[in-house]
Structure of Nitrogenase protein alpha chain:
Amino acid sequence: MPYHTFECSECIPERAMHAVIKGPGEDLTSCLPLGYLNTIPGTISERGCAYCGAKHVIGAPMKDVIHVSHGPVGCTYDTWHTKRYISDNDNFQLKYTFATDMKEKHVVFGAEKMLKQNIIDCFKAFPHIKRMTIYQTCASALIGDDIAAVAKKVMAEMPDVDIFVCNAPGFGGPSQSGGHHKINIAWIDQKVGTYEPEIKSKYVINYVGDYNIQGDAEIMVDYFQRMGIQVLSTFTGNGSYDDLRGMHLAHLNVLECARSAEYICNELRKRYGTPRLDIDGYGFEPLSASLMKVAMFFGLEKEAQAIIDEETARWRPELNWYAKRLKGKKICLWPGGSKLWHWAHVIEEEMGVKVVSVYSKFGHQGDFEKGVARCSEGALAIDDPNELEGLEAMEMLQPDCVLTGVRPGEVSKKMRIPYLNIHGYHNGPYKGYEGWVRLARDLYNAIYSPIHQLSGMDISKDEIPTDKGFLTRQMISDVNIVDDRTTPSEERPYTGDWDIVTRLRGKTYPKLESQQLGTA
C-alpha cells in the first residue's frame, strides 16, 4: 500500500493511512486513502462542523428566508458572507445574518423564551419575508431546547409564516458532510409535499446540488430553459422556499454535487418515484455529455445539440488559447467534495495542467475512489489534511498554483504560491462553457501574475544605506526629541509643525521641511 507519511505527522502514525501517492500501475485496490472518518485527536483538523455543512452550504443559499442560528453569535458569524451565494432578490440572504446570541445564562436557564421573541422580532423587522429556517448549534442542542415546539407556537400565532427547523449541531458528524445529510433529510421530512407550485411544461426537473456561487446555477438553468425544460426548483442556490416545498412534482432530479445533495434525491426516488440523473457542469466534454443525458430522458436531443454546438464554437478557441499557455503547469486540486473528482481529469485534458495532488476535508470514500481513479501517476491524495501537512505537500510538490478555499489559499500565498478560490470563486461563475474559460483565465492570470513573480525575489540581502536617510533617523538614535508644540508660547514662540528643536545633549537641529520627513 503506497501510504505517505508526512514528517510533521510522524508522531501520529494513524495519519499515514490518510495519504497515498499513486504509483505506476496502482489502482483502487492498493492506492486509496481512508476518508470520512472521525478526525484523529491531535491532528489539528481544518474541517468544518455539521452545523456549518447544514447552514452555510445547503440552507443559506435559499433566497427568501430569514436564516436564524440558535446559539452563540460566533456560529452564525463564521457561516456568513464567505461564499458568493448570489440571488435575484437583491441578495437578501447575503446582506443579513441572524443569531439568538446565547450566553452563559441561557445555557443554565434555557433559551426557548428568548428564541420565540427573536423569531417574532425577525418577522417584524422584515415584514416582506414570511419564511424562516432555524439552525440548532452545539449550545442549544446540549441544553435540549425544543426548537420545533417553539416554531410550532409561532406559526400558530402568525399563520402567514412558515418555519423550517434544522437540528444539525456541530458535533452531528465527522465533518460538515454530516450536516449536509441532516438538512437533506429534514427538508424532505418536514416540507416537501406541503406546497403545489405551478407546472408550466411537459418537461420538469429539480436542479439539485448547486448553490449558485457567483451565478453557477443561473448558467445551468439557462441551458435547461433553452431546451424547453421547466426548472421547478434549485436546491438550493437562488432557490425559493416554497418552490423547494414542491420538489415532489418534478419528473426528474438532475444532481450536480453528489456529495452534498444525493440524500434528498435518493429519498425523492423512494417516496415519490422521481428518477435521479447525475451530471457535471464543469468542462466542455463532461458538460456536453451531461446536457445530452438530460435531453435524452425527455427526447430533446436536437435542442441540446444546438446548444452544445453554439457554445462550443463560441468558447473553444478561447479555451485553447489558455490551454496552450498552461500546458505542463503543476496544480494542487484541494477542493471540497465533488470537485475532487469532477475536475481531476478534465482540467488536465482540457487545460493541459498537471494535477500533482488532490485532497478533501470532508470527502467520503466514494469521492476518493473516483478522484484517485481519475488522477495521473505520482499524484498525492490526502484526506482531512491540516495546515502543516499542506505546507509540507507544497514544499515537496512545488506547484505553480493551488486551487482551494480561502484558509489554505492564504497559507499558500505566504509560501509565494498563487491560489484560486474554487469554493467562493475569484471571478466566477465557473460552470458552463464560458465559466470553464473563465476558470482557465483566472488560472493563467494567477500563474503569470507579475506580482506573484516579484514576491519570490529575495531582497533581504540588498544593501540599504543608513547614513543618507531621513534626518529623523539620526535624531532618534542620538537624542530624545522635544517638539516645539509642547513648549509654552511665552517661553519660546511656536514656529511651525515641523520646527523640532532639542538641546538635551547640547545639540540643536535645524527646522525640518515636510519633504524631509516624507509627509505631504
Notes: The CA atoms of residues 53 and 221 lie 24 Å apart. The radius of gyration is 29 Å. The chain has four domains: 7-45+315-455, 50-190, 204-307, 463-520.
